[in-house]
Structures are given as structure tokens and as C-alpha cells.
Predict the 3D structure of the following.
Amino acid sequence: MRLLTFRPQKLLIWIFFLGSAMLPAWYHLNKPKIVILHSYDKEYAWVKGVNAGINRVLEGHREYVVTWYYLDTKRHPLPEFKTNAGMAMRRMLEAAPPDVLIAIDDDAQAYVTRHLINHPTIKIVFAGVNNALSDYGFDQAHNVTGILERIPLAALKETLLLIAQDNQMRTPLTIKFIGDRSETVMGDERYFRSFDMLPVQVVESSLVETFDEWQQAVRDSAGKVDFLVCSNYRKIKRQTNNPELVPPKELIQWTEKHSQVPLIGTNGFFSQDGGMLAIGTSPFEQGETAAKLALELLISNGQANLIPVRTSVQFVVAMRAPLIRARQLKLPRVYEAAARGINEYHE
């Protein structure tokens, strides 16, 4: 019988190859982890813009593991869906805690990050937040920082005054805020009403739940205001007893066809839905700033609330030239150039 002989050199070779094979996996498992959590779905125009901003900063940073999740609550607005989606996400985060969680828009805060305030290991960076920090409990959190989303009302006011001047409109201009009754829009409306729009006059807002209410609010504006302003309209039901949501393009195209008053949006996707003009918050800035804050936390390993919360300052322009011409409105050429710069000039 031939006896097996022990050859140390072969064992060393096997240990070398086994170690070489396991090293990448070990390295990957020990990389700092960033989880990016969106409230909405990845095909939503706002989400695409935020992701573009995030990628501008994180692209090339292979020293981190980046994972993306989408709660998809805009397409599924029922409370039961939101609650279950948030619970499932929290369980996932507790099972495999990231080093930094970037949470975007209000539902991600309401159903996920609110439950992770002062978590011992997870640091949170928020973006796309429309209300006050205290509304989310962030004012009492040591593990939270981020960027607030605010409607670019200074730019909107400037635009309205330029339109009035270049089109010899009567002054003072009067405007009305219109939108759905989502948490995001109600936060936008509170900020809108707190902002000093003078010499532009602001009348009582119309926040509606159904398409019939939206149509009535649009019709009632005729002869009473010079412009309507809206931030969002994606959670408007077909009818009171019908939870089906009106498709955004249908709603905006109806408005452009029937409204005697021009409607201006405060999100870039308004123009994609068929709207005439948008002076919108920049989704790119929200994404870029959130990603930069996440990197700052990872590099410094500091306490999140010691990094000051930012407020949005950039804005985007989107426009549909045929609708502007149809209403015989003039705008400075720089607006067209700005819209073309982000491929949001539509002929």
C-alpha cells in the first residue's frame, strides 16, 4: 500500500490560492456602505435628476459599496402600502446596517428615517425635504444632516416681474398656489405663503384631492388672478370614491387647454408633463449635496448634526415654446438658453 505523504509546499500553494480568492470578497464586505433610499420610483423625472447629481459625486469612489432602494410611494399612495414598505426597509437596514443612509423626499423620512433617529451606528443624510426639521424629529437627532428642498421663490418672483414688464401686464400681479394635498405640497404651500412676494400679491391657495376640485379651482381663477403656481399634482384622485390617480400628463394638458390663466410649475418635470414653464428646484443640487455630505461623514467619521444643514439655492428652467407663444408671452432669451442647457426646451 502506498502511503500518502504530506507536502507542505502544496498546502502553502492551496492556502495562497484560497486566500487570493477570498480577499476580494473580504475587501468588499469591509468597505464602508452607503444606502440610497428614494421615496418614489426610479423612472420618476425628479428621482432621475437626483440620481444624476448623486452619481456626479460618487462615480469613481470604488472604496464604498453603494446600494439603491425605492419605496415607490407616489405610484402607491395608500397608507397601508407606505407603512408596509417602510417596515420592510427598516428591517433590511437593521439586518445589514449601512454606514450612511441617504434618504430622499418626505415619505422616506416619515416611514424609515424617523424610526432611526439617534441610531448608534447609522448616519443619515436627508434630501428633498419640504417641511421644518422639527416635523421629522431631526432637530433632536445627533445622527442626521442634509439639504432642505425649497421652492425657488426668489427666482419665480423675478420671472413674474420680468413677464409683467416685457408684456405690459397690469400691476400689481396676483398669483394663486394650487396643488394636491400631499405632505410635500402642504409643506411647499406653507413656505410659499411665508415668503415675501411683494409687489406680487398672493391670494388664498387651492389644495385639492380630486380632479373635479382641481378643474373647479382652475375655472374659478379666471379673471381673479394673473398666474397659477403649482409644485405637485401627482396625488389627485379621479373621484372622491375612486382612488385611481389622474395621470400627471392628463391633468396638466387639461389645464393648459382650459385655463384662462397661465400655470407655472416649480418642478422641472412640469414641462415634461405638458406644462408651459417651470422655475423649479434643482434635483441635481439635491443629489450632489447629499452625496458630498455622505462622503464628508465617511471621511471624517464625525457626528452628523455637527455638519450644518444646507438649503437649496439652485434652480432649473423648463419650458414649452408653443404654449408660451400661444399665450403671447415674452421671456428674456436667457430662459431659453437655461432650458436648452438641461434638454428641457420643448418645441
